[in-house]
Amino acid sequence: MAGSAAFARGEAYAAAGVVTLLGEDAGHLVAVVRGSEDYRVRLHGSGTRFGGDCTCPAYDRDGWCKHLVAAALAANAAPIEVPDYREPIRAHLLSLGATALADMLLDLGSKSGEAMRPISGSTPPTSRSATAAGSSAVP
């Protein structure tokens, strides 16, 4: 689980209202937490037995992060039914057409090497794998 520093920072994130609960996906609660970047969080479980994953470098390094804490606290404070914001987004994306979607994905990929992985099948050298090899960037 999160250490005391990650927990305190996650509490501050939740209190600041930077968590957007997107809905459920295959038994996971999906959220986006705005920090230095937007990070995607997936939580599963309930009560004191839960886990998840996050797209931030701290999760890759430590296995837990402030974003998971923030999302868990926001989920606990949410109404019983978390609205599913993904379906309207999906409908909008489907209405754009292939060319607009391709342009959008390529633009996103140019901003984040990690975002290119599912598109290209590999991670460009400027991605998180290069960061993990020796950068001291703080999430």
Overview of the molecule:
The protein is globular and about 45 Å long. The chain has two domains: 74 residues, no CATH class; 36 residues, no CATH class. It starts with a helix and ends in a 7-residue tail after the last helix. It has a four-stranded antiparallel beta sheet with strand order 1-2-3-4. The chain has 139 residues and is of the alpha+beta class. The protein contains seven helices and four strands; from the N terminus they run αββββαααααα. β3 and β4 form a beta hairpin.
Shape: globular
Contiguous low-pLDDT stretches (5 residues minimum) are: 126-139
How is the largest sheet built, in terms of strand order? 1-2-3-4
Strand content: 15-25%
Rg over CA atoms, rounded to whole Å, is 16 Å
Question: In DSSP terms, counting alpha (H) and pi (I) runs of 4 or more, how many helices?
Answer: 7
**Structural class category:** alpha+beta
How many structural domains in the coordinates?
Answer: 2
- Major sheet: size, sense and barrel closure? 4 strands, antiparallel
The total strand number stands at: 4
Distance between the termini: 17 Å
Helix content: 40-55%
Mean pLDDT across residues:
78
| Helix and strand pattern | HEEEEHHHHHH
